[in-house]
C-alpha cells in the first residue's frame, strides 16, 4: 500500500480507480464493509482501490478543545487500512485552503481533475465541502455529469442492534464496555509510538514504566488495561495506564506501560501496545503510597487475566 500526502503527489497510477472518503477512525466493521465494496469494485474494474483521509480530522481543526478522542492514531490507522488490502491512502492536510473549498470545488479539483475516479463509495451519513453543503445527492448529480458512479453503503448493526460507527466505539470505550468496542471494531486495539523519558516516578515506587508520548493526540481510550507489549520483535505482558495522570498533576495524555519480566533500556524504541482487558477507570490517588498499592492491585488483576487466557 502507498501513502500519498497531498494532491500534488497524485500520479497517473493512482487515477481512474475506486475511492472512498472519510476519517476511518478505528477502521471498525462499518468501515470494513465500505472497504470491502471498494476492493470488490476495484477488482472488477482492474483499477486501484483508494481511501481519502484528512489530517487533522475536520472536527479537530474546527474545535480542537471539544473534538472527540481518537480511537486510532494516524500511523495505526494507516496500518489497519493496509491490512484491509487497500492500494493507496491519500492523506489531505485539513487546513484553511481545504476547508474553504465548496462542494463543487472539492469535486472538481480532487475527484475529477486530481484522481479522475471511476467509482465513489461513501457511508450513508457522508457530508463534505465548506459548511458541509455536499451530500450523497450532490455527489450523485456531480458523478452523472462527470461520468463516474456514486453509491452509498447501508449501516452495519451491532449485536445490540446499534449502528456501528466511530461514535459508538467511543461511547463503548468511555463507558468501560471494552469487549463491545472490540466486537464493533472487529480487530484488536493497538497504539504505537516512541518511548520517551519521564519523571521516573514509577521507578521510585517499584513500577518502572515505558512512557509513550501521544503527540497531542487526544485518545478515546482512557483508564487502566492489561496489555501486550511489542518491542524489537518480541512480545511481553504488562499493565498500562492511558490518561492525564491526575495523581502527579499530568498536563497531557500519556500512555504508561509497566512491562512484566523486562529488564532493559526502552528509551527511543518504537513500540506497540495492544489493549487486552479493561481493569478500571483512571482516578486521582491521595499520594504516591496509595498509587503504589493501586498499581500493585492493577498488576495482579492483569496477571490473573493472562493466566486465565
Trace the largest sheet across and list its strands.
1-4-3-2-5-6
The protein's oligomeric status is single chain
Helix content percent band: 25-40%
> What proportion of the residues form beta strands (DSSP E)?
25-35%
Rg: 21 Å
- Secondary structure category: alpha/beta
Overall mean confidence score, pLDDT: 92
Task: Determine the number of helices (DSSP H or I, runs of at least 4 residues).
Answer: 10
Which tags fit this structure?
10 helices, alpha/beta, 309 residues, 6-stranded antiparallel barrel, 12 strands
What does this structure look like?
The chain is 32% helix and 26% strand. It has ten helices and twelve strands. Helix 5 (103-112) packs across helix 6 and helix 7 runs antiparallel to helix 8. The chain starts with a strand and ends with a helix.
Please sum up the structure shown.
The chain is an alpha/beta fold and 309 residues long. Helix content is 32%, strand content 26%. The chain has 10 helices and 12 strands.
Sequence-ordered SSE layout with sheet pairings:
Blueprint: E1 2-5, E2 18-21, H1 29-45, E3 49-55, H2 58-62, H3 74-83, E4 88-93, H4 96-99, H5 103-112, E5 119-123, H6 136-146, E6 149-153, H7 166-174, H8 178-185, E7 189-196, H9 201-204, E8 210-213, E9 223-231, E10 234-243, E11 254-259, E12 270-280, H10 288-307
Parallel strand pairs: 1-4, 2-3, 2-5, 3-4, 5-6
Antiparallel strand pairs: 7-8, 7-12, 8-11, 9-10, 9-12, 10-11
Helix pairs in contact: 5-6, 7-8
Amino acid at each position: 500500500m502507498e501513502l500519498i500526502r497531498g494532491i500534488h503527489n497524485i500520479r497517473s497510477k493512482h487515477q481512474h480507480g475506486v475511492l472512498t472518503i472519510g476519517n476511518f477512525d478505528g477502521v471498525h466493521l462499518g468501515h470494513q464493509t465500505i472497504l470491502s465494496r471498494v476492493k470488490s469494485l476495484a477488482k472488477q474494474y482492474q483499477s486501484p482501490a483508494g481511501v481519502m483521509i484528512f489530517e487533522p480530522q475536520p472536527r479537530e481543526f474546527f474545535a480542537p478543545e471539544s473534538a472527540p478522542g481518537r480511537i486510532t492514531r494516524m500511523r495505526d490507522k494507516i496500518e489497519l487500512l493496509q491490512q484491509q488490502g487497500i492500494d493507496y491512502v491519500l492523506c489531505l492536510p485539513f487546513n484553511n485552503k481545504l476547508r474553504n473549498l465548496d462542494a463543487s470545488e472539492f469535486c472538481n479539483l480532487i475527484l475529477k481533475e486530481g484522481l479522475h475516479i471511476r467509482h465513489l463509495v461513501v457511508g450513508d451519513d457522508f457530508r463534505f465541502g465548506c459548511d458541509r453543503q455536499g451530500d450523497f445527492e450532490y455527489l450523485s448529480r456531480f458523478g452523472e455529469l462527470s461520468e463516474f458512479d456514486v453509491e452509498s453503503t447501508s449501516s452495519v448493526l451491532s449485536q445490540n442492534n446499534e449502528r456501528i460507527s466511530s461514535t459508538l466505539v467511543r461511547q463503548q470505550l468511555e463507558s468501560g464496555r471494552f469487549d463491545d468496542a472490540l466486537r464493533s471494531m472487529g480487530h484488536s486495539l493497538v497504539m504505537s509510538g516512541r518511548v520517551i523519558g519521564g519523571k521516573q516516578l514509577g521507578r521510585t515506587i517499584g513500577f518502572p514504566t515505558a512512557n509513550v508520548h501521544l503527540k497531542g493526540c487526544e485518545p478515546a481510550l482512557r483508564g487502566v488495561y492489561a496489555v501486550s507489549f511489542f518491542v524489537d520483535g518480541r512480545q511481553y505482558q504488562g499493565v498500562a495506564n492511558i490518561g492525564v495522570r491526575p495523581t502527579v498533576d499530568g498536563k497531557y495524555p500519556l500512555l504508561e506501560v509497566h512491562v512484566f519480566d523486562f529488564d532493559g533500556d526502552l528509551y527511543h524504541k518504537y513500540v506497540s501496545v495492544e489493549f487486552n482487558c479493561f481493569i478500571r477507570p483512571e482516578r486521582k490517588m491521595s499520594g504516591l503510597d496509595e498509587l503504589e498499592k493501586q498499581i500493585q492491585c492493577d498488576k495482579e488483576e492483569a496477571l490473573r487475566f493472562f493466566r486465565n487466557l
